[in-house]
Amino acid sequence: MKQHSKEQVEATANSIVNHFIPKDPNETKLSFHFTIPPASNYKVNYEKDAKGNWNFKGYEMDEVK
Predict the structure, then answer these.
(1) Strand arrangement, sheet containing 40-48
(2) 23-56: per-residue pLDDT in tens?
(3) Which of 54, 6, 7, 63 is CA-nearest to residue 35?
(4) pTM of the model
(5) What is d(CA 22, CA 31) in angstroms, rounded to the nearest whole number?
(6) What is the DSSP string of 10-56?
């Protein structure tokens, strides 16, 4: 399984994060899982800043069970 660079994971996550924004405006953190084909799975974490922008905070490889 290929491990992608932080930049690749962050760029991919940033391109789809809008699909995962919580409906509750009081939420300040979110995380979601995604796959970079063919089989690299990641979990990413975001935090909302004082201006309401969601900022990438980190990621981890998501093990396939």
Answers:
(1) 29-36, 40-48, 54-61
(2) 999 999 999 999 999 999 999 999 999 999 999 9
(3) 63
(4) 0.89
(5) 10
(6) HHHHHHHGGGG--SSTT--EEEEEEEETTTEEEEEEEEE-TTS-EEE
